[in-house]
């Protein structure tokens, strides 16, 4: 558990640095909130984890939900 906490802190710090460097903290905050909202929808998680749905369909669903999110933020998804 401690290893995950350390990784989480490092990852969070790196994301914050990216946001500050680009001077787009509000944009990053909005993008991260959208991704967090998406991850909290149980039906979305069920579809993404279900092997009955093709990669293509999952990709389209993910792409439609994350449309408009900055490319750097998308690398986190």
Protein architecture, described:
The structure is a single chain. With 77 residues, this protein is an all-alpha fold. 75% of the residues lie in helices and 0% in strands. It contains five helices and no strands. The chain has helices spanning 2-21, 25-39, 42-49, 55-65, 71-74. The radius of gyration is 14 Å and the shape is globular. The mean pLDDT is 87.
Q: Profile the largest sheet.
A: none
Question: Total number of helical segments?
Answer: 5
Amino-to-carboxy terminus distance: 22 Å
Q: Which residue ranges are poorly predicted, with pLDDT under 50 across at least 5 consecutive positions?
A: none
Shape: globular
- Helical content (DSSP H or I, runs of 4+): over 70%
Strand residue content:
under 5%
Rg from Cα: 14 Å
Total strand count, please? Answer: 0
Secondary-structure class? mainly alpha
Order of helices and strands: HHHHH
Global mean pLDDT: 87
Brief digest:
The protein has 77 residues and is mainly α. Helices cover 75% and strands 0% of the residues. It has helices spanning 2-21, 25-39, 42-49, 55-65, 71-74.
Core attributes:
single chain; mainly alpha; 77 residues
Would you spell out the secondary-structure blueprint of this structure?
Layout: H1 2-21, H2 25-39, H3 42-49, H4 55-65, H5 71-74
